[in-house]
Each structure stands twice: as structure tokens, then as C-alpha cells.
Amino acid sequence: MPDKKDGLNVCLMNDSFPPVIDGVANTVLNYAEIINSELGKATVVTPEYPDVQDNFPFPVVRYTSMSITEKICNYRMGYPFSASKLDSLTSSGFDIIHSHCPFASMVMARVLRIKTGLPIVLTYHTKFDIDIKRALPTKLMQDQAIKMIVANISAADEVWTVSEGARQNLISIGYEETEGRRIRIMENGVDFPRGRANADEVAYLRQELGLEGHGPVFLFVGRLLWYKGIRHILNSLKLLDERGIDFRMMFVGDGADRAEIEAYADELKLTEKCVFTGAIYDREELRIYYTAGDLFIFPSLYDTNGIVVREAAACGVTSVLIKGSCAAEGITNHRTGILVDDTPEAIAAELEYAACHLDEIHQMGEHAMNEVYISWETSIKNAYNRYGEIIANCRNGKTSNTETDLQMDFFSGISRMTDAVQRFRSIPAVSALRETNSRSIAKRRAKKEEKKKLGEDASDKE
Considering the entire predicted model, what is its pTM? Predict the structure, then answer.
């Protein structure tokens, strides 16, 4: 338990943050808000975005970024070696660094650790090997990128994952877990209050979207990407349609594969039964969409935690999940959720059962609300208490950090370089020299303009 009088001062780093909206960005936002309002102080460090306005009740430090990765993965690539930002962060009085991404954020965290001696905890949220294999064309490039990620993660003083499945995935891509270097599971929470949204607003939404009078309303919330299991959803709905069972399906979200997904729904002749709402960013409005569904379908094998499953549970909606998936962890079959084999046929069988037994499905939703739900307050207080233990362990020389001498030399070199840049920028003579140069340039321009004017006067006299 942290024992500082005013609470810990936490540096939160992530490569995504609003205006980028994803599960990890939402996680960091909740960490910052809850730590800052209830526990201590939190600062978010993240790449800059053009024209962004940070109106948050906590500090946000943005460092230089480039757009070269934006078309590939919707994120800007941060440049983590900004001398001025590192100098500012060094003097911010942090107690611990918490990185939520093993890319630019973790590189900057490692440089900052050299400068400050602070411990780093890293949370592994995403199965990055899947994203890397989609983004890079050759196995050699994929293997090197995964090796780099594992090296960055292994440099943390402690590593957390959001589920047991995420832990297994991290080990499978090369992270070496030993007795003294165990991965700790730290579940994410949900920022929805426990309970269903206002009944009148739910009824209005169902009427507006044409959901009433057509059997059960199935629901998916998340990025519209094929690897979220959406092909399985559509294929199972086609089987249901062929059996003459009426229903409506809401897809809430957006993503790179949305056009293809809508085209496939049209190909299956499901367009009249499927509603694509686009992304809903307002959290209170999103609660209405969740509550408007009878059953949440989430056959993703990609997601490491499935926060959307907990969000649905918060609203009293149970989920159909794939057996053995990370999203299915903690779910009891036919009590707090429905666990199925990874096939459209298995999903369709449960959807058909649900259509005929909606009262039982709603009862499962009540169980999920009471037994699966975990608030962000609970989750982040657990993490915050662990911060204090990590700080104490590092002071006593107990750490999972596996920085090699070569890596230490590299990051120490970067640290010295950024220190030198900052010293150079702060030398009064440099400022004076710049001012002198500016005056000299101005004088030369004035003389040039004067000569030009004399030439024009002489030409007029002729």
C-alpha cells in the first residue's frame, strides 16, 4: 500500500490516447482520472496529434509524432527521444512509470528510467503478434518485430497482463517467465455503473432503429475487423435466417473492414436484418445501445480481455463467447454467459435457443451483472496498491528487469545525448548567438532592399 502522504505521482504512457479511441486508450483515460481524483497524481504521456485540445482534469504531455503509420494502423508513430519532453518529465517528481504499450511508449520509458532510476511496470493488453503478421509482408520482418517487442517488455521491472490468455500469448511469443519474474494478472474494469440504461431512452432507440417486433436483438460492439470473429457472426445469422427465425442484429462500431463486412451481409441477404450504427463515443449513449440488446455476440479469439463483455454485463446483457478464449475467462456457462465451439453452427444453435427462451437469457444477464462486473475503481485501486510494492521491491533490488549491458549502454547513450541537447539549448550564449544571427540577417535584407530601391530611382530619372 503506498504510504506517501499526498499519494503516488504516476507517469502513464501509451501510444494511443484521445482523439484516438480504443480499449487501451480508454484504459489509460480511466487510470488517469481515478488516480488523479481519488488516489494521488497522474500524468499521461502520449504522441501528439494535429490540432488536438487536451481538456482533461490531469496533465497530458504530448511528444513529437509522425503520420507514416497512420494509414496502416490508425495510429501516429511517436518519436520518443524528444530532449525537451524528456527533460521536463525528468523533473516532474514521478514515483513510477506505467507503460501500456511496448512500442514508442516503452522506449521513452526506458530512457526516462536511465535519467531518474524509476521502476517501470508494463501492461500487455493486445496480442501484438496478430497485428504484426497482418501488417508486415515477410516472416523475417514479423519475427524481428516480435523479437523487438519482447525485448521491450522484458525490460520492465514488472509485467502485467489483463487475462490468463494474454499471459499465455506473451509467453508463446518469447517472453521468459521464471520464478523470480512472474507475470501478474491485473484485470481491467468497466467505467459503466452497474445497471441498465433508462427504459424510455432504450425504447426510443429500439423504435428509431426498427428493432421492435422482429424477435430477439443481437448485439456486437467493437472495431469492425474480420479477426474479431465477425464472419462467424454473419454466417451463424444466415443459418438462423434459413430456419425462419426472425431477429435483428446491431453492429456498433467502425473499423477498416466495415465496408467488406457490410458487403458480405448484403451477399448473405441479411441487410434488412443488420443495423450498422457506426462508432458511438459518448459513454452514456453507448450504455443505451448495450441495454437495447437481448444477447451480446463476441466470438473473438483475438481480444485479451474483452472489456466489451464486462460492459454488456454491467448493463445486464449476457454474452455468447468461444470456449477457451480470453473473453470467456471467468464466465460460467449458462449462468453468466454462453460458451460455444468456434463454429458458426455452434453459435447458431445457441442463438436459436435464445430466440425461444428470452426470459432465461435475460436471467443470465442479471447473473452477469452481479458476478462478472468489475468497476474501474476496484481495478485501478488494486493496481495502485501494487505500485507501492513494486517501488519497494526495486529499492531492495528485486526486479524483473532484464536489461543487458549492451541495452543499458544504448539507452544510457540516448540519455546523455538528450541531456547534451537540452544543455546546448539552455546556454545563454546560444540564445545570444541566435539573436545576433537574426539581427545580421535583418540588416542584410534591409541593405538589399535599399540597393533595390536606389536602382529603381535611378531608372525612373533616366
Answer: 0.79
